[in-house]
Design a protein that fits this description.
Layout: E1 6-9, E2 28-34, E3 42-49, H1 51-62, E4 68-70, H2 71-78, H3 91-104, H4 117-120
Antiparallel strand pairs: 1-4, 2-3
């Protein structure tokens, strides 16, 4: 049996608005949202399995929201209380997905304002030299 797809565009994996109900009955869907400029932390807006997952996906497609599939991440996030921030162990995966979704929807990524690309290229800390060099 092939591995389930992860972190890929749902359209590429065969899930479309017309065949959502043909997917496994135990599928999970999670919708994320971010706060305003004062609180950009991603939060769980909706989560569900089966028919509720279908409804979440149908709403996303109906509103032109791009969707990504990551079954393991969806299962983890679905266990979190609504309106709660995502757990720190999910930050990287969620950041990847949200970056993709903002780009796919031609929307500015609110997280871009937090980072200056030139700052990211600089080392955060200098390596500690275990044995100091002798001065002559």
């Amino acid at each position: 049996m092939p591995d389930e797809p992860t972190r890929t565009d749902i359209h590429e994996n065969g899930i479309t608005p017309s065949n959502i109900s043909k997917k496994p009955k135990n599928q999970t869907a999670v919708a994320l949202t971010v706060g305003d400029e004062g609180d950009l932390s991603p939060r769980i807006a909706a989560a569900g399995r089966g028919k509720i997952a279908e409804q979440i996906l149908q709403l996303a497609f109906a509103n032109g929201v791009k969707v990504r599939e990551d079954a393991a991440l969806a299962d983890m996030l679905a266990k979190i209380e609504l309106e709660s921030p995502i757990p720190s162990e999910a930050f990287l995966a969620v950041a990847e997905i949200m970056s993709y979704v903002y780009k796919a929807n031609n929307q500015p990524n609110p997280f871009d304002a937090l980072f200056d690309a030139s700052d990211l290229a600089q080392p955060v800390a200098q390596p500690v030299n275990a044995s100091p060099e002798k001065e002559d």
